[in-house]
Amino acid sequence: QVQLVESGGGLVQAGGSLRLSCAASGRTFSNNAMGWFRQAPGKERKFVAAITWSGILTYYGDSVKGRFTISRDSAKNTVYLQMNSLKPEDTAVYYCAADRELYTVGDYLRHSTNYDYWGQGTQVTVSS
Question: Average pLDDT, stretch 2-18?
Answer without folding.
Answer: 98
